[in-house]
Amino acid sequence: MAYLNANIPVMYAQIRREYLYDLKKHHGEVEDCVIFGMASITGRPILFHAIMENGAIFYRLPISAFIQRGYDPKEVPKMRLDELQLWNCFSYYPAVTSYDILDGQAGKYIGKDKKWYYGAYLFTIDFAHPDSNIVDTDHSEIPHEHKCAHILALDNGNYAAQPNNRLIWDIPSFTVKDEIPDWKVQTSEWNVEDTRKWRTEDTDKFFYEIEEKKDD
């Protein structure tokens, strides 16, 4: 698991140039870039690193700074950062995974405005606490607080980072039920070693003693 910075699957994108000028000028302009990495800072949104065609790299920009390559910036709606990413990072330790079952699959998420936004899966960012010798002040290990962030390329040209409980995926050969689950938030901390009813044998036997049941 990475600390602070992590590689991500590269995204050939366009950057809104105002983000390169501290939002002070060049509004409405874009230039091509390649997004290649990310930073995870507790209490901050996922921040992305990109390299431009002039060879310069700009670190730590939010997902709202980018649109997909091939889109006319005038036709891509400007969405607030909190509309594109619902939760901040839960830890300084991110894990980046590309799940095969979701690769290239279509999905949709419900926004704060109660509207559906459609897109395609790119990869997933999750968070954890890696070392028991470091005081854990984050929320990544608390069942009812934890969230991951699935990165999507939206049909409207933006990118988004959304958790499981905002997303519905479309896998044509399997997701055949058209319904929204009424599940409850997971609060249990599962453990298979928290019982006094069972313990291992105090022997050097390779296999544990097995009591066979005989038929009457």
C-alpha Rg (nearest Å): 22 Å
Number of strands: 11
* Uncertain parts: none
**Average pLDDT, all residues:** 91
Largest sheet, in brief, is:
6 strands, antiparallel
Oligomer: single chain
Name the shape in a single word: elongated
Query: What level of helicity do the residues show?
Result: under 10%
Class based on secondary structure composition and strand pairing: mainly beta
Give a brief rundown of this model.
With 216 residues, the protein is mainly beta. It is 2% helix and 33% strand.
Describe this structure in words.
There is one protein chain. This protein has 216 residues and is mostly beta strands. It has 1 helix and 11 strands. Strands 6, 7, 8, 9, 10 and 11 form a 6-stranded antiparallel beta sheet that branches. A hairpin with a 4-residue loop joins strand 3 and strand 4. The protein is elongated.
